Amino acid sequence: MTRAVDQVLSxxxxxxxxxxxxxxxxxxxxxxEVLAHLQDCPDCxxxxxxxxxxxxxxxxxxxxxxxGHDRAAAIEAFRLWCRSGHAGRSARGRGLIPPx
Length: 100
Ligand SMILES: [Zn+2]
Hints:
The chain has helices at about 10-20, 30-40, 40-60, 70-85, 90-95. It is an all-alpha fold.
């Protein structure tokens, strides 16, 4: 990973923005910064391609269906995991922690 002197974003910052970039939800200025970084950074361009390929593969995979009791058990296990502090602040901030 490299960072040219005129790059606004570091590789680490770009990695954090890849999903938003692919979802096309970045502000125009941020999107331009991502594009500028990708022009000069083959490592991040390769990473973007890998994430894009993975998303295409996952999109074609059927969603698992859980029976009612399995679903309830999975939600309860996730709730306990969140309460144990493993989920961290970012999961709480993004509303990933289930209520209860
Ligand atoms: Zn980079």
